[in-house]
Write the structure tokens for this entry.
Amino acid sequence: VAAAAAAVVTSRGDVTVVCHDLEMVEVTWGLGPNHQGANLSLEFRYGTGALRPCPQYFLSGAGVTSGCILPAARVGLLELALRDGGGAMVFKARQRASTWLKPSPPRNLTLLWTPDGDVAVSWPAHSYLGLDYEVQHRENSNGNEDAWQTTSGPCCDLMVGGLDPARCYDFRVRASPRAAHYGLEAQPSEWTAVTKLSGAASTASCTASPTPA
Amino acid sequence: MVLLRSLFILQVLVRMVLTYNFSNCNFASITDIYCNIIFHDLTGDLKGAKFAKFEQIEDCESKPACLLKIENYTLNPIPGCPSLPEKIFAWRTRAALIGHCPGYPETERNDGTQEMAQEVQNICLNQTSQILRLWYSFMQSPE
């Protein structure tokens, strides 16, 4: 659940905020020594309306709160107020929800050999702008995996050249929020599952390879 | 001294009446300048500062509305940070607006009064953080 890259460190311990795909905001706490055993409660609001209680808490095994899921709005400032049992403020923030953006991985990756021997990689767009995409590939013939090589570009396709049509390759993609668009606290999506690309001429040599996560 | 103060107040009042309309700006050109230059100026100024601690004061929901607020925060000196309009990102913001917003006034701004002379680093960092986050809203907003 914890995503260290987006951790906002306060003097009272670590609170992590992640905005999943501009759809929901996940706030987690209780991982540091300062919060253990304390039952924290979260209130939030967009803009200057009334503070609302967390609509859905995560509870730890001991029955104390360890996080909250709340809806994400695309505009307006999200104010978060995390308090301990005595009402003292443990963590406070006021930013756009997108400050903590973590996109979902692209859903359907398409790979196509071109007549020139390049590979055209394409994927569907997200429903919002400001993302770059990282495409990684490696040769993977008969289970011998090379190191990943990375190519980056905007939505929604790019060309990877210099591949051998007689060999087999693994591909994966992730979406990466642009720093100038969302800020430095946003983080890339998870990688897509590996998609295998058979050589343009033959498919038989790829099938023996394992499927890495 | 009193005359200077009166002139400053008069200038502020005139500005409030004659607020420039940013809807005719070339947003694509301003976006390029922000992404390639001003963004790096702003993050450079904030380097080392834990600017997540500064809560955002204002948001905006369209590119013209965001430019209006960016201009206001960037080019008007505030108590505690009189040097803000003289920083390199502010000069470049002004140049971008002059270059890509037809009819944007090129007049010089007041440099700040004596009461503003004391510079407080945390106030400058907070204001810089506010400006950077307004640029994020500009980037995420429709025209």
